[in-house]
Design goal:
With about 290 residues, this protein is α+β, with helices and mostly antiparallel strands. Helix content is about 20%, strand content about 30%. It is built from six helices and 15 strands. The strands form three sheets. The chain has a seven-stranded mixed sheet. Strands 5, 6, 7, 8 and 9 form a five-stranded antiparallel sheet that branches. The protein is globular and about 60 Å long. The two termini are about 35 Å apart.
Length: about 290
């Protein structure tokens, strides 16, 4: 019996890896990751579907080593059907928040998340800076999101490769916040002209995640892992994390990015943290599976 990785989460102020037993029995567990600590593991066997909505895949289907989704077609369909992005839960009674998220110069998106999740969704996406815009019912939040996309000329998703490519050369915090504040001001001017009455506007309060992610202490990464293989080892010192990305300092390859979505579904066992890499890598921005997270 081994432990299957269920992915990287950001429940509080730091990254956490989730695990469940490969036989599906018992309760899962969490591993809190700390910057400056050594991290090493080896993949075993085949990669299996991570299931849907917190439940294991009933057939434990084998999935591609290069897929960031880590789900078989049926589990992916079930997961998508219950997501906010699918627009299939119009009668959801919970409160939602609309936000502006900044990932790099000229790289801002608008989105919504459940209020009960607080800023976890922003950390999961790797948002360097964000501010809330408003709160209210789901459909009011959805209409506001569409209004802002059109009025501000900002998207509701950004290709993940673009986010990763700019992290090593971010401007100073004051410049990051200023860009978000300008867009917030433009959004506030729309209140009364299309802004849904049911959505309460929230005051500007920029939150900068560069320190939480550890980005101030790490430069640009040169390589990114494209997938694991049976027996493949990933090891190094964790120096930063942003969204699903773990930044590992290795002796032979410098700082290497591991997208934790690529380790979801694998059974992982401990390995010598000095072992380095024995998995496929490419230059950052040079290919590989780097999309799929808004």
């Amino acid at each position: 019996m081994g432990w299957q990785c269920t992915g990287l989460g950001w429940p509080d102020d730091g990254p956490v890896l989730g695990w469940r037993r490969s036989d599906g029995a018992g309760r899962g567990r969490k591993s809190v990751l700390a910057y400056g600590k050594e991290l090493g593991f080896r993949a075993e066997g085949e990669r299996h579907c991570s299931g849907a909505r917190g439940n294991p895949c009933p057939v434990m289907a084998v999935v591609s080593a290069r897929s960031t989704g880590a789900r078989c077609p049926e589990c992916a369909r079930l997961d998508r059907a219950h997501s906010v992005a699918a627009d299939t839960i119009a009668d959801d009674p919970r409160t939602y928040r609309v936000y502006l998220a900044w990932f790099g110069p000229g790289m801002v998106k608008v989105g919504i998340t459940r209020e009960s999740r607080d800023a976890a969704r922003l950390r999961e996406q790797g948002a360097v800076v964000f501010t809330w815009l408003g709160r209210g019912p789901l459909m009011a939040a959805r209409r506001t999101e569409e209004l802002l996309r059109a009025a501000l000329g900002v998207p509701d998703r950004i290709p993940y490769a673009r986010k990763r490519a700019v992290r090593g050369e971010l401007p100073e915090a004051v410049e990051r916040v200023a860009e978000v504040e300008v867009l917030y001001g433009r959004a506030a001017e729309l209140e009364g002209s299309g802004w849904p009455e049911a959505l309460e506007r929230l005051p500007f309060e920029a939150v900068d995640h560069a320190g939480v992610f550890g980005l101030d202490a790490v430069g640009a990464a040169a390589r990114v892992v494209t997938g694991l293989v049976d027996g493949g080892v990933v090891a190094g010192r964790l120096v930063a994390a942003a969204g699903p990305d773990l930044y590992l300092a290795t002796s032979a390859d410098g700082v290497v990015v591991l997208d934790a979505r690529l380790i979801t579904g694998w059974v992982l066992v401990g390995a010598d943290a000095r072992a380095g890499l024995s998995v496929p890598v490419v230059a950052v921005g040079g290919g590989g599976v780097q999309d799929g997270l808004f």
